[in-house]
Write a structure and sequence with these properties.
heterodimer; A: 179 residues; seven-stranded antiparallel sheet; 5 helices; 7 strands; B: 388 residues; alpha/beta; Quinone Oxidoreductase, Chain A, domain 1; Rossmann fold; 14 helices
């Protein structure tokens, strides 16, 4: 099954919410602080978006799609409950208006903290609405999982697993160029 | 450096590629001293494993010398002679902390490729497709090893390179398979497949107190190795009725534990083999599984089935045998880090000796020839070992 088929199978024209979960073996306060570290978001989203942190609460997002299409928005944090939840939404002028939330709750036993990441894309309808579907094709739920896993790896090991720059016999530089 | 690259189905070439560099703070660079073929490589080479990319460097079973360490590496030093398990484990996550290193959550950069197939991605492994991490393999002069403190095991002087080599994958896989059998005094352990993993499972079963060990295969030279190096009674499935023979050896009970060290390459006999192979060739099913079905059938009631062979997503499985015979099934990709200190100690004491499996040795430049011999079991080739 292709990723596209999965994405369209999961998201009807009206359903534009993605939600993924992860358990990280660290206390919620520590994870909250790591998420708020300005260096974190650009690293964990690097596989699909170029994120530039502007200030304490705002960041610019750029997603490059096929055929030189790109999607941009500026997000602003709108809710902060340390160790519990953090929410953000895109500002006026977003090519695809969206909002996101990360929730924290203690996990049982030695598991640490359970995180829930929700992203909601608000299609304006009509032709632009089609853009959202295209974006969701670029950003299926697996990409959201991947962002959470990159966050978890950063929290638990201090690094994000990568192949970027490893040798391979496929192009002139004989190196991989991927996240 | 030179490296053996996969360029498509059955297209292996030794090429010049960049040297690996430290990419993360816990990385080390290993100068490969020995690296070997594994039966599971054949699935990759034959194109049965999706998400390989042209140009991927093959090889996941290796040992060598540390030549460079990252800024966060504390215990491993330049010059250390080390063996490295094939699955990459961070040492920090819940799975690594609970002795399940091949389930590590933090070493697979391609979570999004593993999750759709398996529900949850595995740990990363060297050279076993991108759904399994996509890491460059060890059939090269140098290889990058992430989480070096956790994954590099210093080899004591009393253990040779060839002994250490197989502690990377074949020995821990076989040892784990025997461990899964929960062996009690008096137990009979039957092992399907007398390749490297099967032979290691047989040696390990003795170490864990088995009363009788039986090896099943059809290649005379492999059956001979099982007798000579693993003290097994051997059965040739192309000649004997395996079920009858196992009943005869166990007073009609069947083996207490059965280990499948074959996996999806398992050949059956007769019509069911034709059906299985046709489906495999048409990619309707990647598994054949004759060995596993036979093991379930012959295992004694209440016995253990330990599955080490690599399978895809099997579409028919005789579940009724498990239920009605009260069988316990245990399986995993190898948890090498869990067993490494025990294995090194067994080898140092002379209780386990995997070195005999290195039947054929080649330079790295001759690696494609080595794989040909290994694949077709030419000249009794059990394992082709490359010395870059």
């Amino acid at each position: 099954m292709s990723k596209k088929a999965q994405a369209t199978g999961t998201h009807s024209a009206h359903e534009t919410q993605l939600r993924r979960w992860i358990t990280v073996g660290k206390p919620a306060d520590q994870l909250y602080a790591l998420w708020r570290d300005p260096a974190t978001l650009p690293q964990i989203m690097a596989h699909f978006a170029e994120v530039t942190v502007i200030n304490e609460t705002e960041a610019d997002w750029l997603i490059k799609g096929p055929l030189k299409k790109s999607y941009r928005w500026r997000s602003r944090i709108v809710e902060e409950q340390p160790g519990v939840a953090i929410a953000w939404e895109s500002l006026e002028g977003a090519s695809v208006p969206n909002e996101g939330m990360l929730q924290f709750r203690p996990a049982p036993g030695e598991w640490g903290t359970e995180l829930t990441l929700t992203m909601r894309f608000n299609p304006p309808g009509g032709a632009i609405g089609k853009k959202v579907t295209a974006l969701l094709d670029l950003f299926p739920k697996e990409q959201l999982s991947k962002a959470l896993h990159r966050f978890k790896s950063l929290a638990e090991t201090g690094e994000i697993p990568t192949l970027d720059g490893q040798p391979a016999g496929r192009h002139s530089e004989r190196k991989d160029e991927e996240a | 450096m030179r490296a053996l690259c996969w360029n498509g189905v059955n297209d292996l070439r030794v090429e010049s590629v960049a040297d690996p560099a430290l990419l993360n703070p816990h990385d080390a660079i290993i100068k490969v001293r020995l690296t070997t073929t594994c039966g599971s490589d054949l699935h990759v080479i034959d194109g049965l494993i999706p998400t390989m990319r042209e140009g991927d460097i093959l090889g996941h079973e290796f040992m060598g010398e540390v030549v460079e360490v990252g800024s966060a590496v504390r215990n491993i030093r330049r010059g250390d002679r080390v063996v490295v398990p094939s699955f990459i484990s961070c040492g920090s996550c819940w799975y690594c902390q609970h002795e399940l290193p091949s389930c590590c959550d933090n070493t697979n950069p391609h979570w999004e490729q593993g999750e759709p197939v398996l529900g949850h991605a595995t740990a990363g492994i060297y050279a076993y497709s991108h759904a399994f991490g996509g890491y460059a393999g060890s059939h090269a002069e140098y290889v990058r090893v992430p989480f070096a403190d956790n994954d590099c095991f210093v080899v004591p002087e009393s253990v040779s390179d060839e002994q250490a080599l197989f502690l990377s994958d074949a020995a821990p896989t076989g040892y784990m398979g025997a461990d899964f059998c929960n062996i009690h005094p008096g137990d009979t352990v039957a092992v399907w497949g007398c390749g490297g993993v099967g032979l290691m499972a047989m040696q390990s079963a003795w170490l864990m107190g088995a009363h009788q060990v039986i090896g099943i295969d059809r290649f005379p030279e492999r059956l001979a190795m099982a007798r000579e190096h693993a003290g097994a009674i051997t059965l040739d499935y192309s000649k004997a009725d395996i079920h009858e023979a196992l009943l005869e050896l166990t007073g009609g009970r069947g083996p207490d534990s059965c280990i499948d060290a074959v996996g999806m390459e398992a050949r059956g006999e007769g019509l069911s083999q034709v059906y299985d192979r046709t489906k495999q060739l048409l990619h309707l099913e990647t598994d054949v599984g004759a060995a596993l079905r036979q093991a379930l059938y012959s295992c004694r009631k209440g016995g253990n089935i330990s599955i080490l062979g690599v399978y895809g997503v099997m579409d028919k499985f005789p579940l009724g045998l498990m239920i009605n015979k009260s069988l316990t099934i245990r399986t995993a990709q190898q948890h090498g880090q869990r067993y490494m200190s025990r294995l090194l100690s067994h080898v140092a004491k002379g209780e386990l000796n995997p070195a005999f499996m290195a039947t054929h040795r080649f330079s790295l430049e001759d690696a494609p020839r080595g794989y040909e011999m290994f694949k077709h079991k030419e000249d009794g080739c059990l394992r082709a070992v490359f010395a870059p």
